[in-house]
Please model this.
Amino acid sequence: MDQLLVRGPGGMERVRAVAGRLSGQSRTLPRWLVALILIAALAPSAWVAWRLRTMPQLGSFVDDGIYWVSAKSVAEGDGYRIPSLPERPWQTKYPPLYPAYLSLVWRINPDFPSNLPLATLFAWAWMPPFLLLSFLALRRLELTQGEALTLTALLAVNPHLLYFASGLHTEVPYTVLLLTAVLLLERAGRMGTLGPAVLAGVAAGLAFLCRTNGIALVASGLTGLLLARRLRSAAAYALAALPAVAGWSWWSWTHKYT
Model:
């Protein structure tokens, strides 16, 4: 979603103008048709994932290989380690959420490389919520239904997204958690209710456990609620996100030399 951030004066107007021309309509579509369009938008990434189901690109980014072997260590009950390195050190660089998710693949089928197609399916499974949340986020930016669908469809064929959605990378799941948190934060700031704030804190904490740069999401969400004078919501959000941040920080510190 970084490419969709609009900067400078008149940025949103330019985006709406382009999306409006591409969509060619502004009337409201029935929900079933919107769902059908979003499902159709999944086809390119599904095709790429199918073609790369044996994951020949595994290890090309280094971190994907580390996620994979750390997941194996978790699945085998050896703890959160990097078994491919000498002395099998504890993993303290990458937080554990995504390797824990991938460990399910190793538990279902521990035979490598025959388990790679299942791993590809697990990786691609984040695409449906990714596109849905992208569409909802664009709608919250007050784009029309047609404009939001058009931009979501363009996002669905982005080559970078197609690559990340077919491999063991955290970009897509992290964005899913980020968008979930942002949409809930917007609701909490607008309505002042505690439920969305707590859920936003949980989502932000999980985003941090997926990628540590999620700390920016945790901090900015808290700042936004404070600026909106939603003090109770801010406290609920912070308390919900704190266990994830504190837990991983403690683990990294206590295991960094072992």
In short: Confidence is low (pLDDT under 50) at residues 1-7. Residues 68 and 85 are 13 Å apart (CA to CA). Residues 58-112 form one domain. The radius of gyration is 20 Å.
